[in-house]
Design goal:
The protein has about 325 residues and is of the alpha/beta class. The chain contains 14 helices and ten strands.
Length: about 325
Amino acid sequence: MDNKSNSELKRLEDAARAAWLYYVAKNTQDEIAQKLEVSRQSAQRLVALAVNEGLIKVRLEHPITECMELAQQLKDTFNLLECEIVPSDPNAPNSSYGLAQCGATILERYLKSDTPKTLAFGTGRALKACIDELPSMQCQQHKIVSLLGNMMADGSASAFDIVVTMANKVNAKHFPMPLPVIASTVAEKQILHSLKPVKSIFSLIEQADATFVGIGQITENSPLLLDGFINDFELESVKNDGAQGEIISWLYDKNGQLLNNTTNERVVSSPLTINASKPVYGIAAGSDKVKAIHAALKGKLINSLITNEYTAKAILSM
């Protein structure tokens, strides 16, 4: 593409957007035409051009200019190691379309390495979607470790635990954490952390080559509440404490500082590393997550980000 004229590059950019709307966001050609303000025939030709130019495989390969510029602004503003911005559907800016494909691409980069890697994972809907996009692979050289427990308060398995699912898909050795996410008491947490297998898992996490986490908002639809890890009373309590977001159940305020409260005292998850030297990818998008992502970036709880155009712009405007 280096030798193409500006008009040709602009047309390829339009083709990339049309292809993303068609193949990832599942828009019809009529919907694409409306969103890009072109005729249906033009929309059809743009999608065809993307295919002919090799922009489309399973995932979109064209780096859309605005996304690249937003990524660089975020990297400069928050001193990030990596930042990937996927396009936003103009009519659905809160949609998470594209995050999973982008996250899966980055994961594959690590998994395809011949050098043994240790990869650490949180849990949640965004990460599960990334794992669903991965192809079957043979990665016996790698280790996959969970950052937090995979058990609900009643002992049942968490619906969004992904370490076992991923390990089965890529045939890697895995280290789940068969513990509750939040202990009933501080004493219970201390007992759980004293167990030899848990200490071994925490040691692996410290050695991880890359970490992948979701970012939860503290609102009425907080994942902690929806997934049953805290109740309505506890949600109101942590909101009153100033909680802005959570990563692997660790609550933090608007400045990205961990809260000193009774809920954090009982969180069983691996400790967060502030200003880590190795990549810690936060994967999240949407208007309800903007403040939580911004706070996590501000407090250096993550040093790499995967989000969409809408969310990136909102973060930069804060």
